Amino acid sequence: MGKKRIITKAEAVKETADQKSADLAVKKSQKRQVLKGIASIFSSYNNTIVSIADTKGEVIAWSSAGSLGFKGARKSTPYAATQVARDVLEKAKKYGLSEISIAVRGIGPGREAAIRGLAGTGLNINALVDNTPLPHNGVRPPKPRRV
Fold first, then answer.
1. Which pLDDT tens digit goes with each residue over 57-108?
2. How is the chain split into domains, by residue range?
3. What are phi and psi of 66, to 5 degrees?
4. Taking the model in full, what pTM does it have?
5. Topology given in CATH for the domain delimited by 53-130
6. Residues contacting residue 42 through CB under 8 Å, at least 6 positions apart
7. How far apart are CA 86 and CA 50, in angstroms?
8. Which of 28, 50, 104, 127 has the most crowded Cβ, counting Cβ within 10 A?
9. 33-66: string of b/e by CB count within 10 Å (b at 16+)?
């Protein structure tokens, strides 16, 4: 089919070193600029999670109350939610973020506080959408008691 080629150890080491340097050059140039983003806030009774993605949906930064060191009942407080919002925006500032649209999901005490935390940083907010799932009739109710 084709010529057989024997690779010596010196050639193999040189090829792998060239590949590694090329991979590093590609990774360093991958710091992309993200001007518009989507902030997704998930607020439950136990925790608040905020993630920021670009317009394609690729997450560039995320944070939660648990990852910031809050434990137990303090994770679900409004103060923890504002800290989460500030932390995730600090991570996203590296990408040059200037405009966000906010999508909120869930019902919890940190819901409004996380929105206020994102709004207080000076970014332009394009839209505010509520994506909380609603039941379309829910589960079957229990049958009435017979006393």
1. 999 999 999 999 999 999 999 999 999 999 999 999 899 899 999 999 999 8
2. 53-130
3. -70, -35
4. 0.73
5. Nucleotidyltransferase; domain 5 (3.30.420)
6. 48, 49, 50, 105, 106
7. 10
8. 50
9. ebeebbbbbbbbeebbbbbbbbeeeeebbbbbbb
